[in-house]
Amino acid sequence: MAAEQTHDVAQCARVDDGITRVFQVLGKRWNGPILSVLQGRQTHFADLRRAIPGISERMLSDRLAELGGAGLVVREVDEGPPLRVSYRLTEAGAALEPTLRELGAWAMKHLPDAPPCTENR
User: Fold this and answer.
1) In this predicted model, what pLDDT tens digit does every residue of 3-48 receive, in sequence order?
2) Which of 36, 50, 92, 106 has its CA 20 to 30 A from that of 63?
3) Is the pTM of the predicted complex or chain greater than 0.85?
4) Nearest to residue 51, comparing CAs of 33, 71, 65?
5) pLDDT given at position 83
6) Using CA atoms, how far apart are residues 121 and 109, in angstroms rounded to an integer?
7) 30 near 59, Cβ under 8 Å?
């Protein structure tokens, strides 16, 4: 029989709810790079895929839909011809720019060097 543990709930360290919500979105693979590429410009789907080495079309599509659901990205369709789909940041997504820039600077200073960028084509 397991011993019952008792402790003061007030002494438990709890993560901030805001941090939890942020990392539920930004902590997923590919979301950070997608948001970074979209900073300051509207981008077509194919250009996004080329800008993020290693991401599949399916994963890019899934992540864009997720970021749209979170209110960070807007999908826009140009009926053409030809039909073209592009994405841009919402006001909330654009507000991440200073934070993403700071995180990038922090990574350059504190994280080990990454291998050189290679394109998967």
Assistant:
1) 566 666 666 677 788 888 888 999 999 999 999 999 999 999 999 9
2) 106
3) no
4) 33
5) 86
6) 30
7) yes
Gap between the Cα atoms of 1 and 85, Å rounded: 60
Give which of 35, 48, 42 is closest to 98, Cα–Cα: 35
> Is the separation of the CB atoms in 49 and 60 below 8 Å?
yes
Structural tokens at position 86: 């592009």
Name the token pair of 55. 């991401």
The tokens for 16 are 């901030």
* Alpha carbon distances (Å) from 83 to 44, 56, 100, 103: 11, 21, 31, 36
Identify the CA nearest to 76 among candidates 27, 37, 22, 38.
38
List, for residues 39-76, the tens digit of each pLDDT value. Answer: 999 999 999 999 999 999 999 999 999 999 999 999 99
| Contact predicate 60/52, CB 8 Å | yes
In the block, residue with structure tokens 């399916």: 58
The encoded tokens of residue 116 equal 């050189």
Q: Which of 88, 76, 84 is nearest to 41 (CA)?
A: 88
